[in-house]
Write a structure and sequence with these properties.
heterodimer; A: mainly beta; 4-stranded antiparallel sheet; B: mainly beta
Chain lengths: 125, 110
């Protein structure tokens, strides 16, 4: 049974770069897209972006200018970098598996079915 | 402002039925993309509750059910129990934005 375990710095100062990594254990890494999602205090879930094993990425347009998601297939890990953070980036960050299937021009998006435990990131001077 | 619109809160007495709506648009739910529902308890990761509009993962009680029509979807909880008190989120895919979530609905058991 696949499990995700995430880690990274939890306290940042404004203008610094947020860096988190998510490891995939006990399951296949290839043939999936891997996402980052966050939840600011008192607010809802926000999808940040995703990557697959070959490095193909998609980002939330609202964060695209500051986000980089990368992958290390040899370690079965993927990472999130968010630069120039502000207090508005304070949130619990989650990694998740987001399967999909492609049939020609049609793509089917399954549910985000496996989640990491979450990492609290606080941005404060 | 979330792309998918949910009511901020719903409440019901134990044993009652409550429903949570999730309204999208022609670029997400209305485009035919499936809706999935998650239960979120404080301090824990979201738990998949309903996938593919109306399917329950193994272990999810059949008190939970989902439906989809047009640009909207709904989650129903029948026989409401105290343990159902949580936040619930709908999620889908948007052809312009990628992954999209609703703003979340807090279910309170009176």
């Amino acid at each position: 049974q696949v499990q995700l375990h995430q880690w990274g710095a939890g306290l940042l100062k404004p203008s610094e770069t947020l860096s988190l990594t998510c490891g995939v254990y006990g399951g296949s890494f290839n043939n999936y897209y891997w996402s980052w999602i966050r939840q600011p205090p008192g607010k809802g879930l926000e999808w940040i972006g995703e990557i697959n094993h070959s490095g193909s990425t998609n980002y939330n347009p609202s964060l695209k200018s500051r986000v980089t998601i990368s992958v290390d297939t040899s370690k079965k890990q993927f990472s999130l970098k968010l630069n120039s953070v502000t207090a508005a980036d304070t949130a619990v960050y989650y990694c998740a598996r987001w399967p999909r299937s492609h049939m020609g021009y049609y793509s089917y998006y399954y549910a985000m079915d496996v989640w990491g435990q979450g990492t609290t990131v606080t941005v404060s001077s | 402002q979330s792309v998918l619109t949910q009511p901020p809160s719903v409440s019901g007495a134990p044993g009652q039925r409550v429903t949570i709506s999730c309204t999208g648009s022609s670029s997400n739910i209305g485009a035919g993309y499936d809706v999935h529902w998650y239960q979120k308890l404080p301090g824990t990761a979201p738990k998949l509750l309903i996938y593919g509009n109306n399917n329950r993962p193994s272990g999810v009680p059949d008190r939970f059910s989902g439906s989809k029509s047009g640009t909207s979807a709904s989650l129903a909880i029948t026989g409401l129990q105290a343990e159902d008190e949580a936040d619930y989120y709908c999620q889908s895919y948007d052809s312009s934005l990628g992954g999209v979530f609703g703003g979340g609905t807090k279910v309170t058991v009176l």
